[in-house]
Amino acid sequence: MTLIKNVGKTDRNIRLAAGGVLVFLGIVTNTVLLSIIGLVVLATGAVGTCPAYMPLNINTNKDDKA
């Protein structure tokens, strides 16, 4: 299964920064849920695909060749 890249450069940078902050806050406050949410946000930023965007037909990737 090929994942469609639907997260653009700016969106990815925001996700990576926000995910890092959430993971950090989760570790500092000892909140597992916050850390897990941060890891999911980090993962979607790193991979470039957001599963929540697919059913909503959202694509922030300007380099879409399809």
Strand elements, count: 0
* Main β-sheet description: none
Element order, helices and strands? HHH
For the termini, the CA-CA separation is 16 Å
- How large is the share of residues in beta strands? under 5%
Q: Which outline best applies?
A: elongated
Count of DSSP H/I helices: 3
Question: What structural class do helix, strand and pairing data support?
Answer: mainly alpha
Low-confidence stretches at least 5 residues in length (pLDDT < 50)?
none
Mean pLDDT: 92
Indicate the radius of gyration in whole angstroms.
13 Å
What level of helicity do the residues show?
Answer: 55-70%
Could you characterize what this model shows?
The protein is mainly α. The protein contains three helices and no strands. The protein has helices at residues 9-28, 32-47, 53-56. The two termini are 16 Å apart. The relative contact order is 0.27.
List keywords for this structure.
single chain; 66 residues; mainly alpha; 3 helices; 61% helix; elongated
Compact overview of the structure:
This protein has helices at residues 9-28, 32-47, 53-56. The chain is mainly α.
